[in-house]
Amino acid sequence: QQQVKQSPQSLIVQKGGISIINCAYENTAFDYFPWYQQFPGKGPALLIAIRPDVSEKKEGRFTISFNKSAKQFSLHIMDSQPGDSATYFCAASRAAGNKLTFGGGTRVLVKP
Amino acid sequence: NAGVTQTPKFQVLKTGQSMTLQCAQDMNHNSMYWYRQDPGMGLRLIYYSASEGTTDKGEVPNGYNVSRLNKREFSLRLESAAPSQTSVYFCASRLVAGGPNEQFFGPGTRLTVL
After folding, report:
1. For a surface tag, which of A64, B33, B37, B71 has the fewest beta carbons within 10 Å of its beta carbon?
2. Can you give the pLDDT at residue A97?
């Protein structure tokens, strides 16, 4: 049973466009929601994370939007660049817990 | 600081063979993790070690064993490899002091079981 569902599986966006990736979770005990970025042949690396006490968090061109009532959160990549081409994973956990539950991943391709 | 290192980078096994994947971290982190990554499945937790001397099962532990050798090292053993264990394996570590901390991942081991 996948507790974190991520969509789409892949997306193609033109340079300068907006990439949007959505995730939905089931476990209401989750209170820490990170996004990881993975380049081919590398391990995932933390991109940005949010706690449910805020509805939005922005770091540079990357923004997380969080909807606690709908149990959904999303990653927006503004002004997408070819260097943003990577696989993105959402995840969720209890802040005090040890285990992250990952979504299935989204492969993003930014065309020049 | 090397961060999280994994050996080997690539491995091909025949069904029934055994092998151990090695992981080490030099960040003085308390928790360590083993994941497998398969297309469309994201990363699934195999085993984790919350602290030196403890290990616990994750989501997909069957067919694997682990050893937390010391604070730095956490190994994953396949006793009798099966084709279903063909995957990319990632080790990660986490500090665990005072709230949610990011997990730092190694570069991965690509394993093929024939």
Report:
1. B71
2. 66
